[in-house]
Amino acid sequence: MKVAIDIRRVTEFGVGTYTRNVVRALSRLDHTNQYFLIGSPQKATEIGPLPPSFQTIALLDDGTTARGYIEFRAILKRLQCDLVHIPHLFWMPRTLPCPYVMTVHDLLEHMYRTRTRSSLRRSLHLHLTRRVLKGAGRILAVSKFTKSEIENVFGIPGSRIEVVYNAIDERFLHGHATDADRQVLAERYLIKYPFLLYAGSISPPKNLVRIIEAFSALKAELEKEGKFPDLKLIIIGDELSKHPDLRRTVIRSGVQNDVRFLGFIPIEMLRVFYDAAKIFVFPSLYEGFGLPPLEAMAHGTPVVTSTTSSLPEVVGNAAVLVNPENVFEIMRALLHLLLDQPVRDQMKKRCYEQAKKFSWDVSARRILEVYAEVAAAPRTPARLQAGETTRRVET
């Protein structure tokens, strides 16, 4: 097969992590098929060294312009690709010269971000996204939760959706932080105190306002107990400047001396933060998969996360689950994990076991099977009506 993969978002958080690790796993497992990585050659270096069967095809457009769409389509036609994998959800229908496999990470665009749009724009967005999903040769959902969302919101039959789980970036599997790593933490970031950790994107669904409020309540409880007087909350994530409400929450909660915003941290150091944290706190309101809790678990760090969306599916019995809308429930979970050492020891063991259940190689093997099934499938009338009508002449 000739397989194209759209890598134009390979440097982004989430989609980029997925794209890099899928390509790496495919390069380890597949020595038969030919792959064309369509996107920026400079960004492709983020993936690392690849065998000769993986070739980067330059396309600098970010995927949002008509010109970029035309160039993308022309590349697929010129290379005579058997299929293309687009590793993210998109909404503008595309008449491509070969079948496409699409990965859906979540439906956040339809659950939260559409609230600021008019009802007409929301309806159009929903309608066009449904057409795109119906036109896909196969849809890859990163969790059972995301699969059920696609079925319920768009009416796509479950038989056309394959659950293929995410996994941890291999750089988080290099063992515990060394004394030298912790020295860097102390010298470069001036961290010489116990801390709770949040790592991820900075956006309303991540529930950071309640994390800060729960931390403030926790400090008050710890003061009564005479425990952890120097405990801090560290928040790692970009785009803080777009969310001034977080700074206001810190000041209103009276913890301005105990909350630190560190912005972007490279993976090589992020693993040290995971390893050194007392607890990883992630009471997100909505996750299609939710990798950060799993990354923390790989280091044996206890996790407090949500009872909602995909998170119970991902963390299993290896985390403390809370109602993400209840600040005091979050606080009580944090307090319990901080003060009960036997529970911490039990959670650490479960964390290691849970993290091992997810593997990029296992996921890539299933993706390869899907590629073969889609490439071999006949173009049915139903598929043509769903968005492939213009392919009849080209195929």
UniProtKB/TrEMBL annotation:
Pfam families: Glyco_transf_4 (PF13439), Glycos_transf_1 (PF00534). Residues 192-353 form the Glycosyl transferase family domain. GO terms for biological process: lipopolysaccharide biosynthetic process. It comes from the Bacteria. Signal peptide: none annotated. Residues 14-170 form the Glycosyltransferase subfamily 4-like N-terminal domain. Keywords: Transferase. Gene3D superfamilies: Glycogen Phosphorylase B. The keyword Transferase applies. One of its GO terms (molecular function) is glycosyltransferase activity. The keyword Calcium does not apply. This is Glycosyl transferase, group 1.
